[in-house]
User: Fold this.
Amino acid sequence: MNEEGEQIREQEQEHHTKFGGVTFILMLIVALLFDGIQILVQLIPVAGQILGSAIGLIAFMTFFLWFAMKGMRFLTAGRIIAMTGTLFVEVIPLASALPV
Assistant:
């Protein structure tokens, strides 16, 4: 039993690895690029609102996949609550361009 518990702890630690400095910088750059593109697209009167929402969805899917590939759970209870709050901001025109 004790050996099994140690193996489970080792597996959990493998899944809770932190990002390296390079990965963190790349994620930050990608997030800033998505936000910058979204801000520019939001300046287009009507189509910008639709395109901005599409860019936000693509950004979400990108980071969801990126976190999953790194073995991190993206949808925990705390993150779901935070994303629900973010969803309300995303539906407000021009406010969706803000980095949240």
Notes: Residues 39 and 97 are 5 Å apart (CA to CA). The chain has a mean pLDDT of 78. The chain has one domain: 19-97. The radius of gyration is 18 Å.
